[in-house]
Specification:
The chain is mainly α. The protein has 24 helices and no strands.
Amino acid sequence: MAPSGQVVEKQKPEDPAPDPAPDPAPDPAPGRELQSWQCLVSYLCFYGFMAQMRPGESFITPCLLGPSKNFSQPQVTNEIMPVLSYSYMVVLVPVFLLTDYLRYTPVLVLQGLSYVCVWLLLLFGRTVVHMQLMELFYSVTMAARIAYSSYIFSLVRPERYQRMASYSRTAVLLGVFTSSVLGQLLVTVARLSFTTLNHISLAFLIFSLGLALFLKRPKRSLFFHRPAPVHGASPSELDWMHPGAGRRAGGKLGCALASCGDCVLVRMLRELGASLRRPQLRLWSLWWVFSSTGYYLIVYYVHILWNEVSLVTGSTLAYNGAADAASTLLGAITSFAAGFLKIRWALWAKLVIAGVTAVQAGLVFLLLSTNSIWLCYVAFVLFRGAYQFLVPLATFQIASSLSKELCALVFGINTFLATILKTVITLIVSDKRGFGLAVRKQFFVYFMYFLVLSALYVLGAVMDGLRHFRRRRGQPVPTVTQELRSPEEQSAQALCVEELRSPEEQSAQALCVEELRSPEEQSAQALCVEELRTPERTAQALCLQDTALGDLQGSAPPLLPGDRGEDSVQAPGPEAKA
């Protein structure tokens, strides 16, 4: 080996001559990379904007109930609309898996084709079966929305995730707002018919489909096409769960499903089960399931309620587009404002959720009881704004304590559970094979749904408040710190309390802790206590205790701006881990 090393050393002095030539090469590389990234972001945001340009979407229900289609309200309410919930539940998981396996771009093309099929059936369909098939294609477009939100993170480096999430979400919201305003202007000012408006929407969708054909297909994805681990890089969640998975040849779907499903997914589910012991993760996941269920049921059927309240089917008196535009704008504002809310979520999360849910229940009651179309519009706008206020908070609380792989799995499971619950409610309440209730009676059921949820959250908040009050009276220092401080501060404070207690109290507390903890936790805790027994560590623990108690008197650390994707989540702070 020594001679070979000498040969290499002798060859090195001969190379400096050509070295000055490639030296200038690294200078334009960052410029080319920056320019390429800017072009990619611009094209992707332009596609996201154009994909939302469907000015006729706000007027689909008036079109179905109007003279052009002439469907009856029971047909739309009890036969056509329920198909959307059923088909969405069926296609959600296959589209999710195909999105990752096919690397996003084909699914975006499928979404564009499905949108075109929706509007072709809307224009040329005449029977209930045609409209039910239209709802099937529309459910595919809804399930494929995950492709766009995941696609943006597969093309850029992790340090640009947050900016990409911000740009893409802004483009989508701006597209929805512009589409709603344009549709409303074409209906009320230009006095176009719903049929003409649907032709314009079809033209926009064909154009966005052409844009999707030129999207760059990424080389990696989250599960099936993970990049090979780089030497010296920290392994991802999937790598340490299944170390051999990265070395398997993944060219066939069977091998990919076997390696990901049999090993990685099972271990991820086990890790998820361990993560569900965190109270905040359970709370916000349950909120996501139940609240999103009620939210989408309201969104699906509110246009039918508007048509019944207004008692008109003419194109010039419908302001559905204006209501959708206003609700989108208010949702964006409340989502942005939620990022600056400073609160100790371990103590006040249930109370905040209960308050917002109670407001939603009151707005649903206003929707079903009023005969003014303008009050209906205002109530719906406020209802959507209240829901969008809590979405970024839930996203942050769930994602901040998980890796991006587990985060994607949690959001996928929450969405699927919400879809199942929504389908069950639709089958019982809306479908003609169930009770087949009229739209106002359905909204009364949804009002009771939100009222029961708010009552449960209030009860949980009261119980938590009583529990904290009792613990604070008995053991003020350990209880408050254990609820609101990070694990490091909890360990340091526990050591301080142990030093200050009598030997009898220390023995009793040690026995209680030993009985309640698992053998692994007992071993780890014993090692930590043994290492921190020196006087220097004890002094450091006392300092941490004083700092922790001082922080409790001041304001809580600010909440990071929310509503980020799973890949753009920063390291969780003390509040997120509480």
